[in-house]
Amino acid sequence: MPANTTYLAHHFESLEKQTYAARLGMWLFLATEVLLFTALFAGYGVYRYLYPEAFREASRGLETWIGFVNTLVLVTSSFTVAMGLERATRGDGRGTRLLFGLSILLALAFLGLKAVEYTHHFHAGELPGRYYASDAVQGPGGPIFFALYFLITGLHAIHVVIGMTVLAVIGWRAGRGAYAAEYHVPVELGALYWHLVDLIWIFVFPLIYLV
Amino acid sequence: MNPSLARSEVPVWNPRNYLNSPETGLRSWLLTQDHKRIGVMFLVATTIAFAIGGIFALLIRIELLTPGPTIMSAQTYNRMFTLHGVVMIFLFMIPAIPSGFGNFLVPLMIGAKDVAFPRLNLLSFYVYLAGAVIALFGMVQGGADTGWTFYTPYSTTTITKVVPVLLGAFILGFSSILTGLNFIVTTHTMRAPGLTWTRLPLFVWSIYATSVIQILATPVLGMSLLLVAVEHAFGWGIFDPARGGDPVLFQHFFWFYSHPAVYIMVLPAMAVISEVVCAFSRKNIFGYKAVAYSSLGIAFVGFFTWGHHMFVSGQSAFNGGVFGVLSMFVGIFTAIKVFNWTATLYKGSILFATPFAYFVGFLFFLVFGGMTGIALATVSLDVHWHDTYFIVAHFHFIMVGATLMAFLAALHYWFPKIAGKRLPEGWGLVAAVMIILGFNFTFIPQFLLGNEGMPRRYFSYPEKFWPLNVASTAGASVLAMGLVIVLVYTLVALKWGPVAGANPWNSRGFEWNTPSPPPPENYETTPVYTHGPHEYDLPGVETPPAATPEPKHAS
Amino acid sequence: MNELLRRMLFLPEQASDYARQVDGLHYFIIITTMIAAAGVFATAIFFFVRYRRRADTDLTPHVAPRTIHEVVFVGLPLGLFLVWFAIGFPQYAKLSLPPKDAMDVYVQGKKWMWKFAYPGGPNAIDTLRVPVGRPVRLLITSRDVIHSFYVPALRVKMDALPGRYTQSWFKAEKPGRYEIFCAEYCGLGHSAMLGELVVMPQEEFDTWIAEQRRGANAVAQDAGPSGERALPAANVAEEGRRIASEQGCMKCHSVDGTRHIGPTWVDLYLRQEKLKDGKSVVADEGYLTKSMMDPAADIVAGYQNVMPTYQGKLSPPEVAAVVEYIKTLKTQAVRSGPSEGPVYESIPRPQ
Fold first, then answer.
1. Which of A207, A31, A29, A53 lies closest to A140, judged by CA?
2. Among all residues of chain A, which has the CA nearest to that of B107?
3. For an interface test with A, which of C254, C271, C272, C335 has the most A Cβ atoms less than 10 Å from its Cβ?
């Protein structure tokens, strides 16, 4: 079993245990990521309860089509990442690199659309807190909506960038044959992270754009 | 792991240990992935933090010697108590036992060569350092004056340097998350053959429960501190009532983490005590399952009690009642442990060594700290005590009294394991008596001050509070002297202390199954466990091999 | 017994029945705790002596608990704790339900002083006078950061939150002077934010308040509608509130931010109002006064011209009082009204 000696860290008994540990660690890490967003979602819920009308109005003012297209883009990228992982399980590192590259392009498209959206908000004065200068929504609800909007989507965008970096590094290494069919845990974990980024958006989109 | 091995007469220092191999240079320490070295580095760093926080505490007590200004201005005083809280909580109490002793001991106890993710472990240490440096930078820049609770809207409007301190605490949270994650995975995946969950040392159980809290609560705190920082820096108005924000929402977020955080501090202390009580009474723990599961119980119920910090913030009487009752359940889980520890002594063979003296101190502080906590959960008394010195005394009893006792008990119990040397027993007992008495003289007057109605965070106070404040400061000086004695003899013993031998306490805790100090790989061959820890009814003299031979192959 | 325990525990005097009841719980808890702790420690000390170590390698029997042990370990403290709770919680519930006949006092915390305002005047700074034996309800708010109103002698404490009101109540039974502290940290002057509660006999209180009101009215007569006021604002605002409710203003204008027949008064002051004819106007003192005198002149967009004139019905000081009252309605944490662009009063930074 050559793979075992190559990939096994000195302190693990067997590759199975090491893989199990890596997966468990990743899932726990994803749980903390979810909780990080949960705090913001809870804040969003509380303020939506306090200012239902302002939030409804501000939400209606968002470009729903951009949000929708972005959702499609991210779901597609998740799909290509999953295909990349499937390539890796067969030991096809180049295929993984290609598909991960494609996912990164999709992520760039996502960020581009997000940037368009942010530009709209800047021009319309729909900014958080004391920078709020729009007259679309009255009362204190509007500025708070946009504070939370920028916090949630901004934090998500940071995660997209981190996810892209992860995919780039792993895709590049996969292309150079760093992983094998018997051992592709890093590819799997990178893909998991990307699915999480996608999943969070699946929550963000209806919460902010649709409800 | 049959303990019936020949007992060596002369204690021998293990020649090939983690301290001197594979290398001894500074570089080899800074880049190490050895959990033992990382644990030691955490211990050093947290001890330095403790010293800084302790100096702040002494300055605060000196300032309160007289009713008016004594040695500093109100501004300095406000920054001082904020930094005292931030340093003691985020830099000392949260990481000290889990990241320090936990890192060192958990793999040794479960028969593993290392934690599951050694590189993450090192990263956790550097993240800790980064957080500490940023918080210290804020301190040098003038410091924050909000109290460690960072209540809005005060914290978002203060002119002091609150942002670096918040960011420091935010980053420290990541260190805490990484360590917690590592311990959970390690406990699940790295246990040696035969080490079932019901044979797991109680230390590991408690650290496991602590890690669960760290993982679940820290992200929420991180987010809320970040929100305060964003609001202070940019005025986004999330918690600002003048912009429609809800200042009490911050308190909910904050205590959702920070109440469980109290258990992040206390559970590791309970972890240590569960080991110490067994080792020094040579008894198996009474009620293993009760002690183990009550740790998980505390971790779980701890998440539903945060509202008891807000009994006077205008929440409904119904909420007050629910949070009050739930808080009592945490008390129940603690009471189970106290009774089981006491019952463990029954038919034991008790050695009144220094760690055991700290166990007695721990029991005292936990019982009175815990009972005052239950008294606070009766709600109506909390209305009187809320935000007074009674609260200050209560949480110092529980968080500091208990945690500090456990930290010192751990230091004295495991110093032979970590350094291979013995601490002076006589001085140890003297210092223990001074620390325990000093602690009582510091904080019992504060309970009474709270009864009398003195609010906390007071720079000056009406003269009727004077005598008790003087008593408290006097107690603090005794406490400080005791701690200095410990520091001095620990440093002396590092260099000149007598060699301890592999197992000076004749303990049957699993961590003593390797020589002391342990070799870099902990165990040459993976141990196989056939019984639980601290089974003192089994015949045999327990001393593992005093030294390891050179490894046969580089594994 | 009460007196002895009170002194031993350094508790302040008990100015109300409620304080005495809370102290009763306190004594009960202390005594039961001491007994329980003494039991635990006596057992531990007995074990220390009885089972002290003889030899380094003693073997000890394996002792495991039976279920009954753990049940007792859980049941005993739980029973005790629940008894404490059963005493304490009703006290707390009582404290959160002021009696209907309570006299209201508005309390406002501000860096670093307490303002007390009686409906109908007068108001006071740092000294709260109340009659003995009469329930007093405190409606507490803050102007800047969180404060906490605390009277140790009453065992009563309640946070003062900016942007919302909290309430608490007490019935002082013993005439005297008692300290008021701020219990929530609020900055440099936190420990100097002291006040005094003066509990006086009913007749004395009545005389005092009557005197104060006479003085207040005399000053109010001299003040013009928008001229300099000799009285602190809170007092006039209270007067305004009374007038507004007597004149029926509240039938059409809400003070909780909801849209009604007329625009809400919350955040009305200095609001940019869009009018029916497309112009817009800032709702300053002048506009508010004009709207009371000649309501049809400037109708806010979206509302009907239904308001009667108050020309001749209100004297100039009364109009000023109502305007002052509207100015105080700056509660931000309520739903916004239909008008746009409220001007927020941001929290002043120290210095």
1. A53
2. A11
3. C335
